[in-house]
């Protein structure tokens, strides 16, 4: 049974008809007292709770009711219903234990999608199986490993893939966030539809709208034809928003609107377009910390992380290092036409001891460089050591960090900070010394939160 709590009879009736049409058993109530009478009679599978009652419009009564429900019935999932103008109330409600929020006026398809997703997740039982059992049920061909941490993640991925729940994938650079996003899509009902990848860290704030929502002819100087944006390209499929933590606040607002309302307007157009997409986001940054610092919107954070998947660093699952190394070598056999290529047992054990700060990406680069530089078919410890030593020598000669120990983004930040210090925060001089335009430098200064002399602007 689903319980609808709203003092507006018209809304209760509308939601009841919609949900009953989908085969759900539904009960509607109009006050806190009636809510607890219904709860004592039967524990529902899900509650849809409006935060605003006619007594007041601040949401206080609805929030108090949510707190009482979660205190007495903590296992019952609650979806909040609120207006776009009071979305901050929904964010507070998420902190109090609500699992999702819907804004008025709602879209029937989106509301049903949220209900189905939450009921699906609450009813599924853990497989508690091996990698072999997971592979029998799901498609994880490109994900290598048997570590218990990874198996727990794959089980979660398999369970949530069949829903349309938004997923946030977190983890250090090089841990395989894109592979997990692909696995979610490939195991979903949308697998035959497009899977569109967007690196938000590589899109400037000025191009954000055009890239994601498209533009019409004449929208700006170089817009000679209409162009579809990434969301339109991903219609009925999935969109992967990588490096979402790099978005500036103004772009975050625009993204929140399309995620919330499932509509957007191409740049230069006044006509709204509806989009049906499954949203998967990824970041290597701490979004909760960014929320507390005011650099990432709290309402956007709660909108994208109904499900959060945190990937472990490779050093946290060392037993998977030999498996990954062997996987990379087997791929390189075909690429470089060396069918007898293999790793020695000693090399397999030695690789397992490496810290690999760059995670899977660093391991892959290390294996491929060693294959290219070694003339032997059996790669031993000494082959890897020679390669790593050569890499360290080159890095030392050029005063560069060793490959895999620092990301390109971190290196960029350090170089800009060093140049700003050297040129005493004079933007024009820093831009010339780095070989970029002042506009490009401004974007990076804002991105990394580096202060500069406004008089130089």
TrEMBL record:
According to the UniProt record, list the residues that bear 4-aspartylphosphate: 50
Q: Which InterPro entries match?
A: AAA+_ATPase (IPR003593), AAA_lid_NorR (IPR058031), CheY-like_superfamily (IPR011006), Homeodomain-like_sf (IPR009057), HTH_Fis (IPR002197), P-loop_NTPase (IPR027417), Sig_transdc_resp-reg_receiver (IPR001789), Sigma_54_int (IPR002078)
Domain Sigma-54 factor interaction: from-to ranges: 143-372
* The organism's place on the tree of life at top rank: Bacteria
Query: GO MF terms on file?
Result: ATP binding; sequence-specific DNA binding
Protein keywords: ATP-binding, Nucleotide-binding, Phosphoprotein, Transcription, Transcription regulation
Query: Could you tell me which Gene3D superfamilies the record lists for this protein?
Result: 1.10.8.60, 3.40.50.2300, Homeodomain-like (1.10.10.60), P-loop containing nucleotide triphosphate hydrolases (3.40.50.300)
Q: What are the coiled-coil residue ranges?
A: none
Q: Which SUPFAM superfamilies match?
A: CheY-like, Homeodomain-like, P-loop containing nucleoside triphosphate hydrolases
Q: Which GO terms describe its biological process?
A: phosphorelay signal transduction system; regulation of DNA-templated transcription
* Residues covered by the Response regulatory domain: 1-119
What name has this protein been given in UniProt? Sigma-54 dependent transcriptional regulator
Q: What is the lineage of its organism?
A: Bacteria, Pseudomonadati, Bacteroidota, Cytophagia, Cytophagales
């Amino acid at each position: 049974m689903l319980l609808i709590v709203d003092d507006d009879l018209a809304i209760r009736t509308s939601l009841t008809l919609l949900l009953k049409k989908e085969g759900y058993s539904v009960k509607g109530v109009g006050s806190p007292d009636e809510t607890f009478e219904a709860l004592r009679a039967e524990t529902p599978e899900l509650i849809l709770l409006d935060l605003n009652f006619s007594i007041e419009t601040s949401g206080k009564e609805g929030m108090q009711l949510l707190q009482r429900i979660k205190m007495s019935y903590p296992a019952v999932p609650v979806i909040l219903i609120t207006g776009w103008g009071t979305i901050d109330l929904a964010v507070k409600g998420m902190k109090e234990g609500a699992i999702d929020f819907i804004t008025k006026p709602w879209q029937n398809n989106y509301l049903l999608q949220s209900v189905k997703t939450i009921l699906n997740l609450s009813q599924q039982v853990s497989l508690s199986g091996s990698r072999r059992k997971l592979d029998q049920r799901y498609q994880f061909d490109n994900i290598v490993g048997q570590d218990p941490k990874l198996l727990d993640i794959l089980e979660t991925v398999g369970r949530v893939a069949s829903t349309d729940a938004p997923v946030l994938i977190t983890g250090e650079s090089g841990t395989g966030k894109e592979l997990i996003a692909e696995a979610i899509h490939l195991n979903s009902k949308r697998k035959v539809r497009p899977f569109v990848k967007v690196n938000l860290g590589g899109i400037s704030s000025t191009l954000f709208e055009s890239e994601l929502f498209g533009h019409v002819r004449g929208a700006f100087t170089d817009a000679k034809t209409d162009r579809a944006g990434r969301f339109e390209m991903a219609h009925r499929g999935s969109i992967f928003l990588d490096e979402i933590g790099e978005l500036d606040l103004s772009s975050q607002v625009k993204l929140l609107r399309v995620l919330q309302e499932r509509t957007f307007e191409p740049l230069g157009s006044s006509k709204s377009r509806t989009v049906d997409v499954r949203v998967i986001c990824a970041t290597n940054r701490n979004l909760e910390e960014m929320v507390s610092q005011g650099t990432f919107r709290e309402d956007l954070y709660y909108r994208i992380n109904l499900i959060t998947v945190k990937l472990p660093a490779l050093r946290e699952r060392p037993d998977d290092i030999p498996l990954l190394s062997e996987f990379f070598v087997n791929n390189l056999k075909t690429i470089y036409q060396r069918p007898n290529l293999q790793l020695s047992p000693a090399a397999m054990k030695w690789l397992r001891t490496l810290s690999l700060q760059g995670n899977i990406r660093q391991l892959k680069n290390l294996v491929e460089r060693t294959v290219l530089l070694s003339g032997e078919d059996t790669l031993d410890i000494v082959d890897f050591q020679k390669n790593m030593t050569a890499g360290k020598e080159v890095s030392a000669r050029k005063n560069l960090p060793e490959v895999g120990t620092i990301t390109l983004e971190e290196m960029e930040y350090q170089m800009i900070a060093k140049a700003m210090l050297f040129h005493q925060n004079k933007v024009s001089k820093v831009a010339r010394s780095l070989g970029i335009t002042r506009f490009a430098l401004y974007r990076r200064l804002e991105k990394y939160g580096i202060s500069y002399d406004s008089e130089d602007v």
